[in-house]
What we know:
The structure is a homodimer.
Chain A: H1 25-36, E1 39-40, H2 41-48, H3 52-64, E2 68-71, E3 85-88, E4 92-99, E5 103-110, E6 114-122, H4 129-150, E7 152-160, E8 163-165, E9 170-174, E10 179-182, H5 184-192, E11 196-200, H6 201-212, E12 221-227, E13 230-237, E14 240-241, H7 272-275, H8 278-284, H9 292-301, H10 305-329, E15 333-338, H11 339-346, H12 348-358, H13 361-366, E16 368-371, H14 378-393, H15 395-403
Parallel strand pairs in A: 4-7, 7-11, 12-15, 15-16
Antiparallel strand pairs in A: 1-3, 2-3, 4-5, 5-6, 8-9, 9-10, 12-13, 13-14
Helix pairs in contact in A: 1-3, 2-3, 4-5, 6-14, 9-11, 10-12, 11-12, 14-15
Chain A binds a DNA duplex through helix 2 and helix 3.
Pfam families (chains A, B): ROK
Family (chains A, B): Belongs to the ROK (NagC/XylR) family.
Region (Disordered) (chains A, B): 1-22
Amino acid sequence: MMSSPRQRAAPTAPPSELDPSRRNNLALITSLVHHHRVLSRAQLTKRTGLNRSTVGTLIGQLVALGLVYETAPTGEAQVGRPSPEVRPSPSIAALAVYPEIDAVTIGLVNLGGIVQKKIRFATERIPSAREAVNIAAAVIEGMRTELEHSYRITGIGVAVPGLVNPDDGTVRHAPHLGWRDEPVARMLSEATGYACQAANDASLAAEAELIFGAGAGRDNLIYLNGGASGVGGGIISNGMLLRGASGYAGELGHTFVRTSGEQCHCGATGCLETEVSQGRLFELLGLSGGDTPQLEQALRASSSPAVAGEISRQLSFLAIALRNAVNTFNPEVIILDGFLGVLYALAPSALDDLLLSQAMDGPAAQAKVHPAALGSNLMMIGAAELGFARFLADPSGFGAALTA
Amino acid sequence: MMSSPRQRAAPTAPPSELDPSRRNNLALITSLVHHHRVLSRAQLTKRTGLNRSTVGTLIGQLVALGLVYETAPTGEAQVGRPSPEVRPSPSIAALAVYPEIDAVTIGLVNLGGIVQKKIRFATERIPSAREAVNIAAAVIEGMRTELEHSYRITGIGVAVPGLVNPDDGTVRHAPHLGWRDEPVARMLSEATGYACQAANDASLAAEAELIFGAGAGRDNLIYLNGGASGVGGGIISNGMLLRGASGYAGELGHTFVRTSGEQCHCGATGCLETEVSQGRLFELLGLSGGDTPQLEQALRASSSPAVAGEISRQLSFLAIALRNAVNTFNPEVIILDGFLGVLYALAPSALDDLLLSQAMDGPAAQAKVHPAALGSNLMMIGAAELGFARFLADPSGFGAALTA
DNA sequence: GTGTTATGTTCTTTGAAACACCAAACGAAG
DNA sequence: CTTCGTTTGGTGTTTCAAAGAACATAACAC
């Protein structure tokens, strides 16, 4: 019944555990080392399914290109010859840029997702695309000596809170920033000389959590972030980020959750992000605003029944959106970030119960809600991942270009 | 900035246009021929990105294995040497099985998605899993002589209206059939001796429409079918069927569309399939039931304002579900089948307008609603695709096994 | 110590695909 | 109707990533 008479496994595609978009096995190994930060040669052999000798050769090439380095085996003592450990080179790095309504944050992130540097440039008012690009370019210019001496920069990734076409890095519409049809990637690339790509912030956060955070080792994940500018979502299915026809997929903030709900800025009514917002909570708490930890503290301190009622109201709407998501995606993990994470932390079992009772049995049984694991570095890591993308797709070409 | 110093394109993964899950280039070519039914060698060369000589060698192997055959070039006259046409062998086929509440349909489908034979076995009552398997096995047994003489059967695919784990072909829950935890694939495999796999019917329909129907050439597609047993959905993103952690993804019938809506059999309230159902329409029309064409005829003939109201009510709920889907998936095509296709046909611009006004600008601009293109053969083609899956993943192994 | 096990190392083999070159089959131009 | 340019198929050669075999090495277990 089975395939049978094949002399050996198809040499073009070994049983890889990573997404199959990898160009070749050199890229596969680079990605694995990037994702795991440390991996013994023996582990790499198992994960890739390649032959021991092949893995040895490939690592040799990566070492020669200066992309990874090997250290003496320090793993737990066990029978057999110890296997050297492979780590990403600390000199490979990507730049991350995250424009928000009150700041532009620029980061320097190592291979392995280690945030080396994070510079938050606060702005008086909402930055225009041009301003955000200028700020980022200036900060990067300030780092340039260091960058050129100590690092090999693979690219810049920009995380944008809005609809972004990742093919050309154009922001179609970022409502809270007031941007429309801004070719941010091209602008920043011209201003800095580095290759640049842009994508939706929540999508990048989802990828970051998939690789380094609460979704590590999973293939199906939903990320939802609640912030001052609404609710953003990123969906990873079968190990791959859902892009859609133009890269706009993942807008879970505009899931319908309420009949005759309020009008959303998107034009529709009853969207998740109009019914579930941190603004309503701050208002009830008598605060004019604040960040997520402040919100959590205030909510925990409050004994107002109105606040409690609003919390449970928002949780019930959140449950409806999550019910939909669970039924349509059958994820293993749902990651709640920002004030949605706070809402969950306040009443985890309440949301879990709502989800279990509303979602379909099969999918509901598997979906586990988690708070985000990467904290304040999340967006830097996610955006940097975009800056690493082309490098990881073809490390040999890049390594050669970088060493040249 | 670009990769540059690589002597040649990575030989392991040419710029293929198909999904990257293909094991090797032999499989790639087989799939292309299967999907397009006719393809000249020159076209195959362009599509695969492989070298002319490589394509020639590969086709030679496929011909030797009896999987495809070549015919004299009949293409439109143009400059240059004419290229022979490659077609799938008519002897390769898969079996399709589709159990419903009132019948079990068995089909024989050629490579290329041509339905050779379709046998609908009507049942007095809802068939149990055992009964459905016995019926299918009996019909297949009846065809066995023919099958063994004239065909090489690659496998059986079962389309099940319910939650199916495609890994082991177990039906987790098919509410309208009343099945729970039935290992249908194993049962049918044991009963017939053919390899068998099972999956959700709407998911298979989505794949069929993607390959041969209204979604041909697209990569992002949503399929929604409305039938007597509710609303089923299948989602194709980035050219791949959304599976989810256990293969339960795609249940768009249980999208939330109404606050304080009726209780759904799934446990939640306000699901699309409780608010939008053909049962309500039949009731208002004073009919006890019927099939889709009958419904369309009756709806078109009716002048009752109650019926018109119900149609627009159902369309508005459908629009909400589609709005969600468009925002989260950014599809190019939305395919409406069954009575949902009828609803759309009655007032296409009404639904289009609702969708345009409610969904977010970016994604909405691209999503086009279409009726299903494959008609009554749809489910046979989809299920057969499942029966072809393992063959297409490794045609060389299969070809050898089949010729042996 | 000695045996066992797991791994790294080196050299050879393999096979899929590219490549270079030539032949074939067409339309277009004169 | 001949010639030319173009596109494709066919054949033999070359390339190169990966497998495989044999050997070396470094740990544990006793």
